[in-house]
Amino acid sequence: MKEEMEQLVAAGKIHTKHVAPLMALVEAGYCQHKSWGFGKIKTMDGIASRLVIDFSAKNGHTLDLQFAADSLKPIPRDHVLARKHSDLKGLQQMAALHHLDVVKLVVQSFGGRATVDQIQAVLVPDVIQSDWKKWWEAAKSELKKDGHFQVPLKKADPIVYQTEELGLSQRLGTEFKAAKGLKARVAVAGEILKSIEDIDNKQVVADAIAVLNSDVSSHVNTMQSLALEGIFMRDDLRAAIGQTAAESDLGAGAIWSQTPRLRELFDEIPAAKHRRTLESFKATVPDWAPQLVQVLNTVPAKLAGECARLLLQEGKGQMLKDTLARLISQHGASSELLLWFGKERGDYFADLLGPEVFRAMLSAMERDQFNEKKSNRLRDFILEDQKLLPELIESADIDIIKDMTRALQLSPSFDDMDKRSLLARIVKLYPAIQSMITGDQAKQESNTFHVSWASLERRKGEYDELVNKAVPANVRDIALAKSYGDLRENSEYKAAKEMQKVLQRRKHELELMLNRARGSDFANPRTDVVSPGTTVKITHLDSGKEETFAIVGAWDGDPDKNHLSYLTPLAQALVNQAVGAQVEFANEGVKQLLRVDSITATTAA
Question: What is d(CA 151, CA 191) in angstroms, rounded to the nearest whole number?
Fold first, then answer.
C-alpha cells in the first residue's frame, strides 16, 4: 500500500501530505463525512485516482483521492458505527444482555467521553429498538455501580470511561468533595443516599453530613429554599446511618421563622420535594392553613393538589371549600387551580360542582391569553374529559344552561370545531338548547360586549404585535427551516409550522373578540340602579356580611380588588337593581338573599 501511494505521489496524482490520511482511511475500512455521514470504503482505484465508498444514501460514490484525504475521517473497525454496519444483530444482542459493554463501546468510540444524547443518537433506533428511557435507566443504574465510569449529575455533561477502577465509596466521596456549592453537593448527596446499602465506608456519609450541615448554616439567611433542601438531605443521610443530630444543628424551623414568601420558595424547590416542604411548613408554622390557602390560586395544578391534600388531611376542608367557592363564583380561580379541581372532583366537593365551574374555566382561559407562558392544559383537559361538562350541568336550571351556552359560543378559548364538540355534549343532556345553537348565527355573531378603553387598547396592542412582529418572524423561521432540506426529518421546520398554527388561531380569536368589543370609559353611569361604572355595597341577609364591588367592563374584572365584570353571574344578578332591592342569588346551588345598600359612581383610581 505504501509503495502504491509513493507511485501516486511520483505521478503527481496526490501530494505527499495526503499519503498518511489515505493510508489511515484504507486501513480503517470505514469513514465519516460531515454531510454524507458514515460510509464503508469499498476500493481504491489508483489509475483513476478515486476512492469508491458506500454511504447510506450514496452507494458506490466516488471521491478524488486528494479530496477524500482532506474531507473524510477514518473510522476504525472497532468503532460503534463500524460495528453497527458489520454486525448489527450482535450489537443488538449485546445491548439486550450487557448494558455496560454497549455503553463502554460507544464512550470509547467517542474518545473516552460521550453525553447521554450522543449515546442515544448512536443506539436508537437501530440497536435499541425497545423503550429507550427504560433501557437507559437500567444502564445508568449499572454505570453508577461500576468503578470504571464517571456519571455526571447534569445530562449535558459527558459520561467518562476510565481504565482504573474506583470503588463506589471512593468515587462518591471524590465527587462530593469536587462538587462546588450547596446545590451541587445536595445532588451528589442524593446519589450517596441512593447507594447507601452498597457503600462500605460509612465515613463518606458522615463527611457529607458535616459539610451539608456547615453549608446550611451559611445559606439559611440568603437562600432559604436551597438551605431547606440541604436540611432535608442531611436529615435523610443521618437517618440512613443512624446518626443523632446535635442540639446546635439548624432545622427546618430556622427557615420558616424567617417567613419566606411561599410562592417564590415553591418555585425554587424541586417538585419532587413539594410534599415534604408542605409537611415541614405545617409542622413548624402555627397558622399554616390560612397561609396555604392564600397561595392555592397561584401555584401549578400538581402543587395545588398537594396543598389541598394536606388541608383535607388536617381537617381544614371547609376552609378549602370556602376559598374554592369564592374564587369560582367571582371567576377568579386560576386555570391551574381549576385544572386540579376538575381532575380531582369527587363527592366531597359535590356541592361546588355546577355550571359556574365551567364559566369560571372559560374566564380563566381568557385571562391566560395575556400570559407570556400561556398554557392550554385546562382547555385540553376540558376537551379530553368527556364526562366533565355533563357532570357539571346535569342538574342545572335551563336558564343557567342557556347563559352558559352563550358564554361558550362567545368564548375565544375554543375554535369552532371544539365548540361544536362541547355544544353537542350540552345538547345531549338538554335537547331544548339545540334550537338556540342552530338559530340565526349572524345574529349571535353581532352580540357585543363593553370593555374599558384601557383593556381594549391592550387587546389591540396584542393584535398589532401578533400581526406585525410574531407572524412575519414565523414566516422567516419557516423559510429558513426549509433551506435546511429534507422536511421529513427537519425538526426546525415542524416546530415553525406548529407555531404558525398557534399564531393563526390566536389571530382569529383576537379578531372575533375585537369585532364584538365596544370601548367605554363608563363615565356618568346611572346610579339609580346598579350598572357598569358603579360601585355597589351589598349585605348578605343570611349572615349580615357586607361587601362592596365595582361593576366594570367585560375584560376588567379583578377579584383581588373586588372588581366584577358586569358579565359575571353575581354582577348580572345586581345590574338594574335599585337601593333597597333584595336580590336572590344562587351560588353553586345554594340560594343567598342579598340587599343593595348603596350605589355610587366609581371614581378613577
Answer: 10
